Amino acid sequence: MIFIILILTVTPFKADRVEITNQNGERIVYLLGNVEIEQDETRIQCLEAQLNETKNFVFLKDSVLIKDKTGEIEANSALYFFDTKFSVLKGNVKLTSEGEIISADSLEYDGEKRIVKMFKNVILEDTKNNVTSSGDEGWYDLNAEAGSLRKGPKLEISRENKSPLIITAREFFLKNKENLCFGYDSVIALIDSITLYCDTISYDFKKEIGFMTRPFVVEKNNELKGIDGEFGLKNKTVDYFKVSSGLASYWTNEGAHNIIEGESIKILFQEGRAFRVKVEGNPKGRLYLKEQEKNAGD
Hints:
- Residues 14-144 form the Organic solvent tolerance-like N-terminal domain.
- By secondary structure, the protein is mainly beta.
- Helices cover 0% and strands 73% of the residues.
- The chain is rod-shaped and about 85 Å long.
């Protein structure tokens, strides 16, 4: 038998079984089996619920689904406050909204402000830009489409038929509405055969342009460093790296070692490999030629 009741003014509840008790002066309603709760445009489903009518909150258990016109949240269990639409969710939590999918071991969600706080094994998928960010703690504003990830965060930018562009840092700030990300402290970026180390980085997913402070770029035996710089991709493949007050150390195919300095150094890439170096502003250079091998009889 299915019971449909009205409690908390006009909020309807439905369940296979209903028990109402009075505990320590508080009225508790137990809803068991195929529970459905509606509040305004919010619909809640689970297998078991304990409603505290006195304090106006409900504890939800097993196959929890909270859904409204902006998206939905799934979890193993949740605590939901009707007055503020604030919820605490635990166990395999997954929030789906337009353009974003957030998963975590647990999260707190302010349904009125649409702000999420995430904890442990956090993954944020920006489906618009094909970017996946992860970390162990963070927050995200669904209205502003902006947030932060901390505690071992990593960002992966998908590239068709290529390995993803991977960036790690101490903290990331994401502005997905503007297609931007910012990485702070101990930044490492992996782009094909290139490893980039820098203090800070910013990257525009649509324009495929990034900016960095104190960059140190390594590509096999070749190195580039400077005070600050920028880099660009074309069709998800490295196009150039540029630094100011820079120094470049690189080897030619013939085995010669070049070291150059200048106010501006720009390395151009073709098919993912460096092929041209441009130096402007007081260029200086040193060339170390490969020693010729001597015959044993010389």
